[in-house]
């Protein structure tokens, strides 16, 4: 099954680690969707996106990041990772920090609806989370073990 995934040093990635990472990523996606669109699960109780929804989709994003890291790191199969892959891991972490800070800006007192009012997810926070997710995507792309074909 994984014979086509041999690394440059001839080792085969662990199928169990890849499966674990993919399952975690899928669970994270479900959590992210649950937080972002609770009405799809008949759980919407408010007209605005509040703290609990923001927290749930940020936890889902964290689980996606961990699952993606486990899957992509296992593709290196014990081989030495490239500088790009190490940089990609740092970009994933940085993107998540940006997404958390943007999503929780009201809680941190930096948003347009700071406490003690009712915090909710505004358009500027949405842009910040989107930028964080874009940085996470670039980080994951850098972690992929690209190989040149031998002639």
The portion of residues forming beta strands comes to: under 5%
Main sheet specs:
none
Overall average pLDDT: 83
- Given as residue ranges, the uncertain stretches (5+ residues, pLDDT < 50) are none
How does the overall form come out from the CA principal axes? elongated
Number of helices: 5
Task: Tell me what the structure shows.
- The chain has helices at residues 15-36, 51-74, 83-103, 105-108, 123-143.
- The chain is mostly helical and 151 residues long.
- α2 (51-74) runs antiparallel to α3.
Note the topology.
Elements: H1 15-36, H2 51-74, H3 83-103, H4 105-108, H5 123-143
Helix pairs in contact: 1-2, 2-3, 3-5
Short description:
This protein has 151 residues and is an all-alpha fold. It has helices at residues 15-36, 51-74, 83-103, 105-108, 123-143. Helix 3 packs antiparallel against helix 5.
What keyword list fits this structure?
151 residues; mainly alpha; 5 helices; 61% helix
